[in-house]
Design a protein that fits this description.
The structure is a homodimer. Chain A has about 250 residues and is mostly helical. Chain A is built from 11 helices and 2 strands, in the order αααββαααααααα. In chain A, strands 1-2 form a two-stranded antiparallel sheet. The first copy, chain A, starts with 13 loop residues before the first helix and ends with a helix. The interface between A and B is large, with 65 and 65 residues. Chain B binds a DNA duplex (21 and 21 nucleotides) through helix 3.
Chain lengths: ~250, ~250
DNA sequence: GCATATTTGTCCGTATGTATC
DNA sequence: CGATACATACGGACAAATATG
């Protein structure tokens, strides 16, 4: 029947093998963030390739956010700590190619923030609660739109961190910034601030009381209220109703 | 007080400007997937840079999965349709650097699949239900581990597509493959198949009945049952309990 | 503060294997 | 099959930028 399944022989480029080796060194912890790579000339000797090939490999690694090289730096390229920049980049292009509608992004935010609140209500530490308090205070005291937005971001980041799940935290941050960038001009109306602050206080109270489901419901509702003017009719309704449905099912 | 806030002047590399221009052309739809870029020699004329610079730019674009170039291709580099490959790559490195624990990944799967089921129960089409039926049938008829796994993936992908949210679909796929790769050896025990099939049938019945909350609960429970042997005690409990808490709160 | 050496960024020319017509 | 054009890879070169003594 099926004989020995051979692997297709892909002709692997020289620069790719360099990328693989350096990438592996970083992922295995052999190269730690902050450490330096050898200079390009050293690398071309170690890999026995030309400098062009070394440079193409470095450009790929740089595009992935793993290293950074500056002209004239005698220490060689620097190994960077992981940042979700690459994740952010690929999600942004995914959204830009118009593969993603604003409704889908907001819906995803509702899912992520709901989960974050659910977890944060149970796992939060006192210092994280203090951070949320401080963020709300800064929202209240904010003068410019920028200041208000920054405090808002800090609040949500504190909640995401309190969830104890770095993936939720990173994805929430990425999706939020994408959504905000997409409709940055239209929103941030000062007349919405009071309502926004009130919402954050309610949600925080629910977190403090350990009522994750309530906090999640408030978050979904707030997102729906805020973004529905910019979305087609009923784009978010399903998630709201179904979340409510979860409760009804439990009551039965 | 605060004078005019100037932008820090970053010396932008030549290859970066090329990347920006081509990237913009793709994102704006000026260059569509399947179309070809000019040859490297044409590009070095159009941008008035050297060949090396053009190549470094192409390597970056290739790393982002936007183009593909083959030696000898007279048509030039091909513009690729968007694939979540870049997303997959960055999430994988995020997990590999051990920034992410297996518990966090599984937890994230619980969140995503729960949301997918919630939406799919309301938005599914008849053809998508048929796909899920077919996938379960193939799971039942599967002989090898590989076949079973492929059918399993197809089922979950059908659910994710039925959610109508491409971001949920893509992220679910990415996180699932990462988790599976992390513990590929240990699992897939044949004795678990019957139970797995039974679970899928239950979840599909819930979807067909339009009971999203039930389907979501089943999915979370199945993930917890399946992965808890490989996780520290109580790593997933919070999410299960809190999801149950959503119901209790609704009953009150 | 300054001069120097090193490194990166960029350019040019060339050779080689390959895909298409 | 042959001719052509292409990508891959090599090596040498110069200017700008940077760190070091």
């Amino acid at each position: 029947m099926s004989g020995p399944r051979f692997q297709p022989v892909r002709t692997v480029r020289a620069y790719e093998r360099i990328v693989e080796q350096i990438e592996h060194a970083v992922e295995s912890g052999e190269l730690r963030p902050g450490e330096r790579l050898p200079s390009e000339r050293d690398l071309m000797v170690q890999f026995s390739v030309s400098r062009s090939t070394v440079r193409e490999a470095l450009r790929v690694l740089q595009a992935r956010g793993m290293v950074r090289s500056r002209p004239g730096d005698p220490h060689g390229a620097e190994v960077l700590p992981f940042t979700p920049a690459a994740l952010h980049k690929s999600m942004t292009t995914l959204a830009r190619v118009d593969e993603l509608s604003l409704a889908e992004l907001v819906q995803f935010r509702m899912v992520l923030e709901g989960a974050a609140y659910l977890l944060a209500a149970r796992l939060h530490t006192p210092s994280q609660l203090a951070e949320m308090d401080a963020a709300i205070a800064r929202m209240r005291a904010a003068e410019g739109e920028e200041e208000f937005g920054a405090a808002d971001v800090d609040f949500h980041d504190a909640v995401a961190r309190a969830s104890g799940n770095k993936l939720i935290q990173i994805c929430s941050d990425v999706v939020r910034s994408i959504v905000v960038n997409l409709i940055a001009d239209k929103i941030r109306a000062p007349e919405l601030r009071a309502r926004s602050i009130a919402h954050h206080e309610e949600a925080l109270a629910a977190v403090r009381a350990g009522d994750g489901p309530l906090a999640a419901r408030l978050a979904r509702q707030a997102l729906s209220d805020f973004y529905s003017p910019y979305l087609p009719e009923g784009a978010l309704g399903v998630l709201l109703e179904e979340a409510a449905g979860e409760e009804a099912a439990g009551g039965a």
